Every structure is written in structure tokens, then in C-alpha cells.
Amino acid sequence: MKINVLTLFPDMFTPLTTSMLGRGLDDGKWQLNLVNFRDFTSDVHHHVDDSPYGGGAGMVLQIMPIKKALDSLKNKGKVIITAPQGKTFNQKMAQDWSQAENLTFICGHYEGFDQRVYDLADEIVSIGDYVLTGGELPTMSMIDATVRLIPGILGNDASPVEESFAHGLLEYPQYTRPENFQGMKVPAVLTSGNHQKIAQWRHKEALRATYLSRPDLLEQYALSKEEEKMMTE
Ligand code: ADE
């Protein structure tokens, strides 16, 4: 997969070149193409923004350099603008995007884009109901969530299958050594060696964690009769 990012701050993306995603880049499992759209301005001062028509405070990012930067790309794939007014990003979107050959993100700053820039996008996506100073951190979050689902990026291919949201529930609790830490014990079922009982316990704990922390997720999750029984036990 090749991901293009149109940004005024390409240096902000160095975190993506470390850890698992960095190894994936080195191994050629994905590519990151950072494009500074300031390079596509034609005036001597390289302006990318101007004051809003109709008056008002702040500046608005202009369409011209962004459109030229987009046109310079060979393969854009889906064009995504990160902005607080977009629909909220989720695991399902990360799963869909992880199948793509190309993705292009456009990162905004200041008071936002000229409305005609939004019209260039296939999707406007937010990371939550709060406002950041720019689209770089949201874009990095979305790239991380997406790229880690590309086969071979995580050490263990099976791990994304078990994690939170993968089946519409939060993940069950995990434990590792020691079995007893200052009186805080690992649930006995996990050391019982009974795999069926362990699977049942994990499923029940996933349901419980979801019910306690994110009951909204259960509204979209079709509980089976058996699961309903588990919840009331
Ligand atoms: N840019 C500024 N705030 C944002 C948010 N919450 N999500 C996506 N992009 C943003």
C-alpha cells in the first residue's frame, strides 16, 4: 500500500518511521509519500491561505496549491480529509482502508479549508469530538490503525483477530506471570488447561467489559440467546 499525505508539516510524521510501522516501511510492506503542498504555490511568499470572503477572523486554506499537489500524484486512491466535522473514524473503516492499494490524506490547519477543497475529498473523517490544531495527528492515528492491519506488519498475524472492536466487543482481560502478585491472583480458569472453559470465560469477560465500559457497542451487537444467558449469570 502507498499512502500519500498532503501536509504543511511533513516533519511531524517521523513517529510513523519507528517501531512496527517503521519496520514495515523498511521491509517495503507499505510506503509513505509526504507532499508539502506549500511547494505547489506560485507567489514569492509561498502563501497557502488567505482571509475569508465575507469577512471574519482567521485564515482559510486555498484550493489552488492543494489541487495542484493532488494532481501531481500518480495514484491517489481514496482521498480523505481529516476534520472535526467529519464522520468518526472506527475500526471498520481501518479494516476497509487496509485493503486499499492507495490512500491520500489531506491535513488542514488554521481555520479550515476553502469549501471547494472538501469537495475534492471522497471522505471527511474525524477522530472524535474535540478540536486539534491540525490534521497531522489525526492522520497519523488513522494511518497507524490502518497499516497495522496489513498482513505481516504485526509480528503475529493472528493478533488483530482477537483485539478490541474486531468482533464488535472490547477485548477480554489478559494475564501473564506471576500467577500471584502481592495477593492479586490470575483467575483460576486460565491456569486450568481446559480450553473450552477458557474460551467461554474470555467471551463472557469480553461481553462484561463491553457492557460496563461501552454499552453503546452492544446496541449494534446481536446478542445470541446463549450470550444473553451468560450476561445474566
Ligand atoms: N483536525 C482538527 N481536529 C480534528 C479532529 N478531531 N479529527 C480530525 N481532524 C481534525
Q: What this model shows, in words?
A:
Specifically methylates guanosine-37 in various tRNAs. Homodimer. Belongs to the RNA methyltransferase TrmD family. The chain is α/β, with parallel strands linked by helices and about 230 residues long. The protein has two domains: about 1-145, Alpha/beta knot (3-Layer(aba) Sandwich); about 165-230, Orthogonal Bundle (Trp Operon Repressor, Chain A), CATH 1.10.1270.20. Helix content is about 35%, strand content about 20%. It is built from nine helices and nine strands. The protein has helices at about 20-25, 65-70, 90-95, 115-120, 135-145, 160, 195-215, 215-220, 225-230, and strands spanning about 1-5, 30-35, 50, 60, 80-90, 100-105, 125, 180, 185. The protein has a five-stranded parallel sheet with strand order 2-1-6-5-7. Helix 3 (about 90-95) links the parallel strand 5 (about 80-90) and strand 6 (about 100-105). Helix 3 (about 90-95) packs across helix 5 (about 135-145). It is elongated and about 70 Å long. The structure holds adenine (ADE). Adenine (ADE) binds near residues 82 and 132.
